[in-house]
Amino acid sequence: MNYKTPRKAIITDAGFASRYLPITKTIPKGMIPVGNKPVMQYVVEECAASGIEEIIIVATEEGKPIYEDYFNNPVPKIEKQLVSQGKQDRFESVKAIFNLPKITVITQDPTYPYGNGSPFASAKRFIDDDEAFLAIYSDDLVLGAPAVKDLMDSFAKHPDAVAIIAGQLVPHAEIKKYASIDFDQNTEVLHGLVEKPKPEEAASDLASYGRYLLTPEIFKYLDPKNTGLDGELWTADAIAALIPTGRVYVKETTGKWVTTGDPKNYFLAHLEYVLNNTDYADDVRKFVAEH
User: Fold this and answer.
1) Nearest to 49 by CA among 101, 127, 126
2) CATH (domain of 95)
3) How many Å separate Cα 234 from the centre of its chain?
4) Largest CB tally within 10 Å, which of 74, 180, 198, 287?
5) Distances (CA, A) of 256 to 83, 140, 144, 167, 272
6) Range of the domain at 162
7) Given the DSSP bridges, would you call strands 163-169 and 140-143 parallel, antiparallel or unpaired?
8) How many whole angstroms separate alpha carbon 64 and alpha carbon 43?
9) What is the pLDDT of residue 204?
């Protein structure tokens, strides 16, 4: 069957984020800021700009109330104070949060095994049997053109798809850090993923990252019984199980993918954002040049 165009996205931030300790013992990783907004908000905004109408955030038990407060609390005391000071323009960025799509925050099913596929499986009940949806890792940030829109456009081109994965070209020497995408460049059909290959053995320099357009068929394989490496439930394994259908496609996205998954790459992603999106970029360049 062909599935309805996606109108929902599942965004995950359900891990312990141990590389960010101690800060992530108190706040979820997706709430770490880039500029004056948390990473999670950029991902939600990317979905909104691409026509997504409903967001399901899968968080930890500790992170759930933090996300619910951030996306739903109108903080009237702050607005009242700023209005009294004649600084109500500073509150516009807060008002913008409440114009985002409907956001529901849930926690991962505690009976599911560890693994990056378990948060998506935990949100299965929110997905209708006849609709495609977006599956997104919140620590993959896309600057510029929204990757979700690229995936939606690919789905319009391939309405028979059971899954579409996003990819971005990386320097040849760097492909060893990622999953190399093996696909037919003419048909865009996925043949497989080669995890962290030697550069000379890579299927391509197109790397897979955390943006997927999926259909309910994925839930046949995102099942607690289908654990893989290290006893974990992996999204990539479930997508690989769909490859024999010949209906899994690849979309090279146009925005720039940067990861915020660890402190070093977060800093580099934040710096790239600052240098390209703020009015103090030249001050930062000057500071770096002088030091």
Assistant:
1) 101
2) 3.90.550.10
3) 15
4) 180
5) 38, 10, 6, 10, 10
6) 8-166+209-262
7) unpaired
8) 17
9) 92
226 falls in which pLDDT band (50, 70, 90)?
low
Q: Which residues contact 82 (CB under 8 A, 6 or more apart)?
A: 88, 90, 91
**Mean pLDDT of all residues belonging to the chain:** 93
**Into how many domains does the chain fold?**
1
Q: Count of alpha carbons within 13 Å of 179, Cβ hemisphere only?
A: 18
Q: Which amino acid is at 4?
A: K
Domain contains 70: yes
**pLDDT above 90 (res 42):** yes
H or E element: which one contains 143? strand 140-143
pLDDT of residue 224: 79
For residue 282, tell me if it sits in a domain.
no
Question: Which amino acid type is present at position 196?
Answer: K
**In 14-53, at which residue ranges do the beta strands (DSSP E only) sit?**
33-34, 37-38
Predicted TM-score (pTM) of the model is 0.94
Alpha helices in 132-280 (DSSP H): 147-157, 235-242, 263-277
Q: What pLDDT, on the 0 to 100 scale, is given for residue 274?
A: 95
Residue bearing the bigger pLDDT, 115 or 257: 257
Has residue 177 been placed in a domain?
Answer: no
pLDDT in tens, 118-149: 999 999 999 999 999 999 999 999 999 999 99
Please state, as a whole number, how many other Cβ atoms lie within 10 Å of the Cβ of residue 284. 13
CA distance 132 to 214: 6
Q: In what helix (H) or strand (E) does residue 146 lie, and over which residues does it extend?
A: none
Between 225 and 289, name the one with better pLDDT: 289
**Alpha-carbon gap, residue 192 to 189, rounded angstroms:** 9
Distance CA 129, CA 1 (A): 11
Report, as an integer, the average pLDDT of 53-75: 96
Q: Is residue 78 part of a domain?
A: yes
d(CA 27, CA 29): 7
